[in-house]
Design a protein that fits this description.
By secondary structure, the chain is α/β, with parallel strands linked by helices. The protein has two domains: 144 residues, Rossmann fold (3-Layer(aba) Sandwich), CATH 3.40.50.1860; 107 residues, 3-Layer(aba) Sandwich (Rossmann fold), CATH 3.40.50.1860. The chain is built from eleven helices and ten strands. The strands form two sheets. The protein has a six-stranded parallel beta sheet with strand order 4-3-1-2-9-10, with helices on both faces. It has a four-stranded parallel beta sheet with strand order 6-5-7-8, with helices on both faces. α8 crosses α9.
């Protein structure tokens, strides 16, 4: 496979752009293909079988477009179908997991909070993660229904977003958590608001940078990293509204010349 082949990234919507952003910073020469499955967003309230079907379709599409590696930039999709996707595709597949391990290392009082979707929190993968790294730590889980939808609409600073976020965050803080894990790739886009609401002394953990480093390691292992040339490009796809998704991607990617192709993959 050519080093010039792109990195394929997908999520239920635009949340995975937080991971793509970290990959872009670390690997500025790489081309990126990003698929936002906006018509099926959020994954967090979907039947796992539906999520698995979407993962397979999107993964196969990205590989058909030449992707040399696939990043499942979604904690929910990772928890429901990562291993099946690895068995299906003939390229490396990297997933997400909530940053329980670094949170355990960061906590000072032994209490961490995890903000995530219902599917992620209920999944076997999360349970295994907690058992492996947090047996001696109190893990306070908080599902956040409705938060992804607000981020998908670009309402990063809206009063309704703050109200909803406060309702999820406050119970975790009231139980004494001094470290908060952002267990959904959408949530880093609310980090400034989360830090303000949580107040000083609360550590915020997300794993975008760690995933970017893992992508770099895997590409190096397969001799697929681009080492010289021009800055990489981005191509965005969505199963949703081209105009609506393009507007939000532009605001999150901080660029106006964004190309978005509507491709439902039904």
């Amino acid at each position: 496979m050519s080093q010039r082949a792109p990195i394929g990234i997908f999520d239920s919507g635009v949340g995975g752009l937080s991971v793509a952003r970290d990959i872009r910073k670390l690997l500025p020469l790489e081309d990126i293909l990003y698929y936002a499955d906006s018509a099926y967003c959020p994954y967090g309230d979907k039947d796992p079988k539906i999520i698995q079907q979407r993962e397979k379709k999107i993964g196969q599409f990205l590989v058909s477009q030449g992707a040399k590696i696939i990043v499942v930039a979604c904690n929910t999709a990772t928890s429901t179908g990562l291993e099946d996707l690895r068995g299906l595709l003939n390229v490396p597949v990297i997933g997400m997991e909530p940053g329980v391990k670094p949170a355990v290392a960061a906590t000072r009082n032994g209490k961490i909070g995890v903000l995530a979707t219902c599917v992620t929190i209920a999944g076997d993968r999360f349970a295994t993660l907690v058992k492996r790294y947090a047996e001696n730590t109190e893990v306070i889980t908080q599902p956040c229904p409705g938060l992804v939808e607000l981020i998908e609409c670009g309402k990063l600073a809206a009063p309704e977003t703050e109200q909803k976020l406060r309702s999820f965050l406050q119970p975790v803080l009231d139980q004494g958590a001094d470290t908060i894990v952002l267990g959904c790739t959408h949530y880093p886009f609310l980090r400034p608001m989360i830090e303000r609401l949580a107040g000083p002394g609360i550590s915020i953990i997300d794993t975008g940078q760690a995933v970017a480093r893992q992508v770099n390691r895997v590409l190096n292992e397969h001799n697929l990293t681009i080492t010289d040339g021009f800055l990489g490009s981005e191509q965005f796809y969505t199963s949703g509204s081209q105009a609506a998704v393009r507007e939000v991607i532009q605001s999150l990617w901080l660029r106006n010349n964004i190309s978005v192709t509507a491709l439902p993959l039904i």
